[in-house]
Amino acid sequence: MVATSHDVMPDIELYQPTDEANALALANTLGTDGWLLGGGQDTYGWLKDRNKTPAAMIELTQVDAWKGIKETADGVEIGAVTTITEIATNPLIQSKFALLSTAAGRVASPQIRNVGTLGGNLNQDARCWYYRRGLDCYRAGGNICYADSPEGLNREHALFGASRCVAVSPSDTAPALVALDATMVVSSVSGQRLIAAADFFVGPARDITSMTVLNEGEILTAVRIPNTWANAEFYFEKVADRNVWDFALVNVAAAFKVSGGAITDARIVCGAVECTPRRLDAVEDAIRGQQRSAELAEQVAAIASDGARPLNYNHFKVPLMENLVKRAIRG
Amino acid sequence: MGEIVRYKYDVWGEEVILGVSWDLLWVIAVAVLILLAAHAIIMAALANKKMDKPSGEGRRVVRHEIIDRLFHWVMAASILMLILTGIAPIVGLRIAWLNLHWISGLLLTFVVIFHIIRSLFWQDFKSILLGPRDFGEPFNSAKKPGKYSFEQKGMHWAVTVVVLAVIVTGLLMFLQIDSPFWDRTNSMAESQLGLIFLLHGLSTLALVALASTHIYFALRPEKLFYTRSMISGWISEDEMTANHDTNRWAPKEAD
After folding, report:
1. What is the pLDDT of residues A183-219, one digit of tens each?
2. How far apart are the C-alpha atoms of B108 and A199, rounded to whole Å?
3. Chain A residues with a Cβ under 8 Å from any Cβ in chain B
4. pLDDT band at residue B53 under the 50/70/90 scheme
5. What is the pLDDT of residues A78-127, one digit of tens each?
6. Residue A260 is part of which domain span?
7. Closest chain B residue to A203, measured at CA
8. Of the partner residues B9, B96, B185, the one whose CB lies closest to the CB of residue A136
9. Which of A142, A149, A206 is the closest to B95 by Cβ?
10. Within this chain, do residues A210 and A255 fall inside the same structural domain, yes or no?
């Protein structure tokens, strides 16, 4: 059904569990009827427009066990309902994993970062405006993509990995976490599973109605970042139409280990070019062992966009992506 | 539960067909399971009254040429792959199914075209035609069929109609996705698209029922010699005379 805008929330049950066991039990009992609520910045638009109509919301931000940032033997663990502002300003993250704090500091606007959570930012749904408008597109369970049609407006959409749906991953923190080799901690009543950040996100070829591997009853409860990339040389840049309160047209998160000017290892991940954060393995391979320089950046930047299939209105993303990768490599 | 067709609102807010209701998949699965189980029970109860099983030993006659057997198994593999990959997202299996699905669909299309041409010009096409005489066959044990029995002909033509429907609607749907051969235009009217999805879904459901039934009968003890012939190419002369009218089907002797 096409959206009807409302100023108020629909009548909906609200559960506010304060401990882990209760939250997991509720998620298990309510299944798809229970909407998992972090800071609500992705949620309220859906519900006010009546484009998603769950019977209940499970607010996760009251569960203390899923809040905060702590140092572990092997790195850092961040609770999934930690706010984006806390991550952007945390001294530990800033000192060891500045890539993530910088990315977090570029999310939306200060007001949204104050209430938005890491879990919410990672699990947010696609920002394709046809989908958000409530049209019955592929992602909504339909049989057509409105964005990739002759008159479709697809300036923000995918260059890679489109399979019927051409929406992109909208998160700024996701590419940073993939670059840092983070692990997602996913909990349910039947236990816990650990998923590499790179495997946490799924494209439309595998699941066209979901952007993550989370199953019914599962909750992302924490993110673990190993020390593998601690204090490496980082680069994050986001290009959007506005400097605040906007989603990336393309962003890049990169980490480099440099010794004597030479790149010994690297991670380069782009967001907003595919439905999942896109790791640029070919570029990483091309720069490994090379001197980090403007010349090297110039030589390999074009590799970043190999295989891109631009849509009618997003050809500009190809040079944008190449330039961001170039800037990341030259530092 | 209970609906056959699913509807949606198109971009103009008009209600149009979205496709078949996949609840029917479970209805079909249960119905087929019950019918085949009932058949198996009845056959087991009648087993004592059956005559002796014809021997598979002795002289052999050719039932299927190698090229026809190859066609059958390629078709079977592609249909099974189409069903598995088509059903995967419906039952919630997260696999990259679409490429496997259209590649299998193209393979099926090519082998079916091959089969149509071969059957029209190189095979005895009349042997598979259903005539008035065939309809009396199940009720008169003295009436034996030529190369194919009434049931086999019925299955063949049911599969023909359903597979052609799946292929035609599938090819139209294939045009709606990006492929190595073209970029989709995505310009078909949503009402037409919905109708194609509906027909593809209905023919898929029929194909699931027919494929299950076919596999069941292929594994029935009294029919196993037909399955063997689809692998090795031959049946024994004893099996032929017990089940077929040699005046209507005179195959050559197998090597």
Report:
1. 999 999 999 999 999 999 999 999 999 999 999 999 9
2. 33
3. 1-2, 135-136, 142-146, 148-150, 152, 162-164, 202, 205-208, 213, 309
4. confident
5. 999 999 999 999 999 999 999 999 999 999 999 999 999 999 999 999 99
6. 68-123+168-330
7. B96
8. B9
9. A206
10. yes
Same-domain pairing of A39 and A72: no
Q: Is residue A30 part of a domain?
A: yes
Contact criterion met (CB below 8 Å) for A148 and A138: no
Domain membership flag for residue A134: no
User: Domain total for chain A?
Assistant: 2
Beta carbons of A143 and B197 less than 8 Å apart: yes
CA A2 – CA A5 distance, rounded (Å): 10
Query: Rounded to a whole number, what is the distance in Å from the CA of A2 to chain B's nearest CA?
Result: 7
- How far is B95 from chain A, CA to nearest CA, in Å? 5
Q: A149 and B187 in contact by Cβ < 8 A?
A: yes
Structure tokens at A135: 């049209």
Within a 13 Å sphere around the CA of A178, how many CA atoms are in the beta-carbon half? Answer: 26
Q: CA–CA separation, B152 vs B130, rounded Å?
A: 10
Q: Residue A28 CB: number of other CB atoms within 10 A?
A: 16
CB A254 within 8 A of CB A328: yes
Nearest CA in chain A to B96: A206
- Give the minimum alpha-carbon distance from A77 to chain B in angstroms, rounded to a whole number: 29
**Minimum distance, in Å, between the CA of residue B18 and any CA atom of chain A:** 7
Residue in A2, A136, A149 closest to B186 by CB: A149
Task: Give the mean pLDDT of B198-206.
Answer: 98
Question: Does residue B96 belong to the interface with chain A, where contact is any CB pair within 8 Å?
Answer: yes
User: What average pLDDT does chain A have?
Assistant: 96
Share of chain B above pLDDT 70, in %: 97
Tokens of A47: 């519900």
Q: Where are the alpha helices (DSSP H) in A90-244?
A: 91-96, 98-105, 110-115, 118-123, 129-132, 173-179, 197-200
DSSP state of A64: G
pLDDT at A5: 64
Q: A106 near A173, Cβ under 8 Å? A: no
Per-residue pLDDT at B141: 80
Spatial separation of the C-alpha atoms in residues A15 and A34, rounded to whole Å? 9
Claim to verify: residue A107 and residue A24 sit in the same structural domain: no
User: Rounded to whole angstroms, how far apart are CA atoms B69 and A34?
Assistant: 53
A50 with A192, same domain?
Answer: no
Count of A-B CB contacts under 8 Å:
51
Contact between B98 and A162 using a beta-carbon 8 Å cutoff: no
Residue A201, both tokens: 């996100």
Instruction: Write down the pLDDT at residue A99.
Output: 98
Please tell me the pTM assigned to this model: 0.91
Residue A9 carries which DSSP code?
P
Provide mean pLDDT across the span A22-27. Answer: 98
CATH number of B66-243: 1.20.950.20
Residue A186 has φ and ψ, to the nearest 5°, of -115, 125
A3: in domain: no
Average pLDDT over residues A236-251: 97
A142 has a pLDDT exceeding 80: yes
In this predicted structure, the answer to whether residue B211 has a pLDDT above a threshold of 60 is yes
